[in-house]
Design goal:
Elements (H helix, E strand, L loop, with lengths): L1 H9 L10 E3 L1 H4 L8 H12 L4 E4 L1 H7 L8 E4 L3 H7 L3 E4 L5 E6 L2 E7 L1 E2 L4 H4 L15 E2 L2 H7 L7 E4 L4 E4 L3 H7 L1 E2 L5 H7 L2 H13 L2 E2 L1 H4 L2 H4 L8 H12 L4 H10 L10 H4 L3 H19 L6 H22 L4 H17 L6 H13 L10 H6 L4 H14 L4 H12 L2 H7 L11 H16 L11
Parallel strand pairs: 3-6, 11-12
Antiparallel strand pairs: 1-10, 2-3, 2-9, 4-5, 5-6, 7-8, 9-10
Helix pairs in contact: 10-13, 10-14, 16-17, 16-21, 17-18, 17-19, 18-19, 19-21, 21-22
């Protein structure tokens, strides 16, 4: 215990500077009025109480890149209990590492205590790891220097003080952003082994922020990509969702494939991307998602996941039908088989799986354009999602474009026009087994009474 205390008091990371570069507002250009009122009030309240407090992470990075931050996080040397006492409308959350949510109207500001971590040589040997070097626990409080060093990339290790309007830079993150470079803090291989998800974050942030990966940051990724398989499925899914909803999903997936990382995300995605038709379908789905996000339109993750896995469902469905399975049972079985493979690597929530299955199950019904089936399909609560999915299939060349155009016109037409648009003879034929059976019974009965009749004749 005494040795541990001495290391904590006197031990410093040799790679981290003891004093930050303090960049004035005249140089970086970020003014306090660019920070949300709630975040400004949170920082000033903490500072007035005698604590250090800063806006940190992605918000500072985005402001330097002339982007609008989606939220503002605060880091401080106050403990969660000390923060909680300063704000009436606040709550402590988290089990592994406690945070405080400070509430101001509809806005929530997340306040974290400075963390120590494996990047600090004084504490690294004390933290448990698995056989591959992945950290199993690193949630300990530390100093501001340790907190900066613990962060993954230099661009995310910037601290902004809205009171003095200075940026505190411990790892030359400001210079890296000016050069358009994303660089990991510390030894890249060691940091990736500690948390393999950092490889996914590197690809996502580089694509999203239009930055180039530093050569040393990029070099170990292809070799260490298999380490993703050791990460809990829930964490992989969370990072995958951020990647797909980044607004640059197409570029992210291409970069994942270029670095061999896609094998650890969607185990079937690497197979799909080797099929020309499957690749075209996936890329169209990603481009459509990116356009919707750029236009500030809602995006349903279940729809995108359904698109990414559709061609594996389709291939399995066709294979099962060739083995003699009926179309509908074969489709249901194909869905379950494909999702079962994904569950080994991605913890897809049940609510997403349910919608994915609904979208897939609607696809055969779009081939039925006769009788009352099209009218009933229009009333289905998932019709719009199913139709958008159908449009992607038509645009990719999987189905004739005429089919998508017909459904687009059908849903816009009035009732009389819809009736005239129906395609007689399409869809499954009606079963007539019962009728034949009753006809045969009638014929047998007539023969027994000495009056034979033809099957189907009126008695």
């Amino acid at each position: 215990m005494i040795r541990k205390l001495l290391r904590r008091v006197f031990g410093r990371s040799r790679s981290a500077p003891l004093e930050p570069l303090r960049i004035p507002v005249e140089r970086h250009g970020i003014t306090a009025d660019q920070i949300s009122p709630c975040a400004r009030r949170t920082v000033s309240t903490l500072q007035q109480a005698g604590y250090r407090a800063f806006i940190v992470g992605g918000a500072v990075r985005d402001l330097l890149l002339k982007r609008v931050p989606k939220d503002f996080d605060v880091a401080t040397d106050a403990t969660p209990e000390q923060v909680r006492r300063l704000f009436r409308r606040s709550r402590i959350i988290g089990r592994r590492f406690r945070l405080v949510h400070v509430l101001c109207g509809t806005e929530t500001v997340e306040v974290s205590t400075f963390r120590g971590g494996p990047a600090d040589e004084a504490t690294a040997e004390e933290l448990p790891t698995d056989e591959h070097g992945r950290l199993l626990q690193d949630n300990i409080f530390g100093s501001q220097v340790e907190d900066a060093t613990r962060r993954d990339f230099t661009a995310n290790a910037l601290f902004y003080d809205p009171v003095s309007q200075e940026i505190w830079d411990y790892h030359e993150g400001y210079a890296d952003l000016r050069k358009g470079v994303l660089r990991i803090i510390g030894d890249p291989e060691k940091r990736y082994r500690e948390d393999p998800v950092r490889m996914l974050r590197a690809v996502r942030l580089a694509a999203k922020l239009d930055l180039k990966l530093d050569p040393k940051t990029e070099a170990p990724i292809p070799r260490l990509a298999p380490l993703i398989q050791n990460v809990p499925a829930a964490r992989v899914f969370d990072e995958m969702l951020k990647l797909l909803l980044s607004g640059h999903s197409r570029q992210c997936v291409l970069q994942l494939r270029a670095r061999g990382l896609h094998h650890g995300l969607l185990p079937l995605l690497d197979v799909i991307l080797e099929q020309p038709l499957g690749e075209r379908f996936v890329m169209l789905a990603l481009e459509n998602t990116d356009r919707r996000i750029a236009a500030d339109k809602p995006v349903n993750p279940a729809f995108l996941l359904a698109a990414l896995l559709w061609h594996e469902v389709l291939a399995t469905w066709n294979a099962l039908q060739q083995q003699g399975e009926k179309p509908v049972p074969a489709l249901l079985k194909a869905m379950d088989e494909v999702l079962a493979v994904q569950e080994e690597r991605l913890a897809i929530p049940r609510r997403y799986e349910a919608m994915m299955k609904e979208i897939w199950a609607l696809q055969p019904r779009f081939l039925q354009r006769s009788g009352q089936r099209p009218f009933r399909l229009l009333e289905h609560p998932r019709f719009r999602a199913g139709f958008d999915f159908l449009q992607l299939r038509c645009e990719s060349g999987e189905l004739p474009k005429e089919l998508g155009e017909w459904w687009d016109a059908f849903q816009r037409a009035d009732p009389q026009e819809r009736q005239a648009m129906l395609k007689p003879g399409e869809g499954p034929r009606r079963r007539r087994r019962r009728r034949r059976k009753s006809a045969q019974t009638a014929e047998g009965a007539s023969v027994q009474h000495g009056t034979p009749v033809k099957a189907g004749a009126s008695l």
